[in-house]
Specification:
Blueprint: E1 2-4, E2 9-15, E3 21-26, E4 38-41, E5 44-47, H1 64-81, E6 89-96, H2 99-103, H3 106-117, E7 123-128, E8 139-147
Helix pairs in contact: 1-3
């Protein structure tokens, strides 16, 4: 636990995993579900571009959940190419074209997420956009990971 000198409040910094990534959870804040308020890590940074749910043949499923599943698999593949894994993730930024579609799918989204990334929840942001570059895409995700040296 550390003290924030500007506010005189304690903040919790708890270890998340052996990958050198730690969750930042200020004392007294409610625990977030499915994401972290903040992360800290030192090491080699691995960054993806905006990733969508294309498979290796360039096929994009029409279903939102199928697109999320393939998008997360694609991110896992990119991380592996960079010598990282889901446990090294420190940030995900989700762009969706329909917030209601996302919110109505939370249980299934959580299952898909854990199936691919496990129970590691980095800092996340979710943004609704008018559309994505690929017209048929329902979701696009950017990822940042830090691999310890």
């Amino acid at each position: 636990m550390s003290v924030n000198p500007s506010k005189g409040q304690a903040s919790a910094v708890r270890s998340e995993n052996d990958a050198g990534v730690r969750i930042l959870q200020p004392s007294g804040w409610p625990m977030p579900k499915g994401y972290a308020n903040g992360m800290t890590a030192e090491g080699r940074v691995v960054v993806t571009g905006g990733v969508i749910g294309w498979d290796v043949n360039g096929h994009l499923p029409s279903d939102f959940l199928a697109q999320v599943r393939q998008t997360l698999r694609n991110i896992a593949d990119i991380l592996a190419e960079g010598g990282a894994g889901p446990e090294h993730l420190v940030r995900l930024t989700w762009y969706v074209v329909d917030m209601d579609e996302y919110l109505s799918s939370l249980k299934a989204l959580g299952q898909i997420y854990r199936e691919i990334f496990g129970a590691h929840y980095p800092a996340m942001a979710l943004v609704q956009v008018v559309r994505l570059v690929e017209k048929a895409a329902r979701v696009e995700i950017e990822a940042t990971a830090v691999v310890p040296r």
